[in-house]
Structure prediction request, 226 residues.
Amino acid sequence: MDSIKEKLFELQDKEYRKIQVKTITNIDPDTIIGVRTPELKKLANEMFKSGNYKSFIEDLPHKYFDENQLHAFIISKIKNYDECLNEFNKFLPYIDNWATCDQSCPNAFKKNSDKLIKEIKVWIKSKKTYTIRFGISMLMRNYLDDNYKEEYLGLVSKIRSNEYYVNMMIAWFFATALAKRYDDTIKYIENEKLDRWTHNKTIQKAIESYRITIEQKEYLRILKKK
Prediction:
């Protein structure tokens, strides 16, 4: 694994690292190498195509944030749903930041929404912050369009957490749902189904969205909790 670490340090961008240290504040800055995402994705693609990645993804936990990013990009490429799911279930407990969580978006999951929903229901009941966040993220990305059911709004509305990164994702989910499924989603805001902070953050994010109409934004402002 030392060769991969060496490669990551060769790809280091020290100015970019300064930005990452400021934006990913909940992890040790010494674990951030500072490799730009396109470079990480390129390396992930090379490793995946060559098949020379299995020993790397089995070597958990990783020391560096950039290794976690690389890991996520590699296993996101696995086309077989069951294999991809298995690797993500092994990896999720080790995700310790919003960036790795949010940039994980496997194509195999998008193509198997009927199976994935069962896993999401397990993930959002986890005690791990970023496992919950990942589950909500998968619902937001894969189930507000063609695979939508109103019950999914209910699933997320029932989540209660003291974790900032969970509540931010809930707010992001509901703001996105307001943009895509306004008539169903507005009822959750009107009936105050979210905790106060998440309720107000949802409204804030929705008001900032270009996908919400002026009229809708004006109404949402009235619903903000004081």
Observations:
- Residues 1-111 form one domain.
- The two ends are 52 Å apart (CA to CA).
- The CA atoms of residues 177 and 200 lie 15 Å apart.
